[in-house]
Amino acid sequence: MSMRKRIVVLISGRGSNMTALIAAASNPDYPAEIVGVISDRANAAGLGIAAARGIATKVISRADYSSKEAHDGAIDAALVSFGAEIVALAGYMRILGARFVEKWLGRMINIHPALLPAFKGLDTHARAIRAGIRIHGCTVHFVTLDMDDGPIIAQAAVPVMVGDNEDMLAARVLKAEHRLYPLALGLVAEGKARMEGGRTVLAHFADDADNSTSVVMAPDPLREETDLEHLARITP
């Protein structure tokens, strides 16, 4: 009998993070399997990607329900029908109601394109550039009642390069997201990351020792262009 956790992914669009999770789950040693994908939009590109990989999909459009509560209820019913144990939000663009969130508390995770608690909400990359920060990134967190406010599971940082525009920074962060989300989901599926008392507890988990010495710097002074004329003046 398989011990892999059953995961259902909620999407609204292209599903690039969903695709990264599906790729990770294709390894039989990965502790989770993607058993279903739900979208609130029938034209979400991710639906076709999931279907092509043999994963069951379902469209649950808000327009088909009389209220937000009814829409949430339909999503919950679909999750139950899939036998979901963990819910992974991957670019799902609707805020879920309190009753739904409370039911799945500690079993629902999300990825956000910023280093929380900074830049909650939308337009994170443009806001980061306007703020002049030099380090940006992404966060996987447990979903709670307040948007982008749940306990942090894992984060990845990238430099903001001189001359970056929003699209360039977004592309760099997205690559980090595709590495981070499978790692974080794996930790939750294995029980190595769990939510307790409003915090994330890591247990039975050995971090990579190299992480203790890794540094992201931007601009990186070690990669500055060498001024050969200046070196000639100061070199005996």
UniProtKB/TrEMBL annotation:
Residue span(s) of domain Formyl transferase N-terminal: 5-185
Single annotated GO MF: phosphoribosylglycinamide formyltransferase activity
Key words, A-Z: Purine biosynthesis, Transferase
GO biological process: 'de novo' IMP biosynthetic process
InterPro entries in alphabetical order: Formyl_transf_N (IPR002376), Formyl_transf_N_sf (IPR036477), GART (IPR004607)
Residue sites binding N(1)-(5-phospho-beta-D-ribosyl)glycinamide per the record: G15, S16, N17
Superkingdom as given in the UniProt entry: Bacteria
The keyword Transferase belongs to this UniProt entry's keyword annotation: yes
GO cellular component: cytosol
Catalytic activity: N(1)-(5-phospho-beta-D-ribosyl)glycinamide + (6R)-10-formyltetrahydrofolate = N(2)-formyl-N(1)-(5-phospho-beta-D-ribosyl)glycinamide + (6S)-5,6,7,8-tetrahydrofolate + H(+)
Residue numbers marked as site, Raises pKa of active site His: D148
UniProt EC number: 2.1.2.2
Pathway noted in the entry: Purine metabolism; IMP biosynthesis via de novo pathway; N(2)-formyl-N(1)-(5-phospho-D-ribosyl)glycinamide from N(1)-(5-phospho-D-ribosyl)glycinamide (10-formyl THF route): step 1/1
Active-site residues, Swiss-Prot/TrEMBL: H112 (proton donor)
Amino-acid positions noted as binding (6R)-10-formyltetrahydrofolate in the UniProt annotation, renumbered to this chain: K68, M93, R94, I95, L96, N110
Similarity remark: Belongs to the GART family.
UniProt-listed PANTHER family: PHOSPHORIBOSYLGLYCINAMIDE FORMYLTRANSFERASE
Function description: Catalyzes the transfer of a formyl group from 10-formyltetrahydrofolate to 5-phospho-ribosyl-glycinamide (GAR), producing 5-phospho-ribosyl-N-formylglycinamide (FGAR) and tetrahydrofolate.
Protein name: Phosphoribosylglycinamide formyltransferase
Organism: Mesorhizobium temperatum
Recorded name of the encoding gene: purN
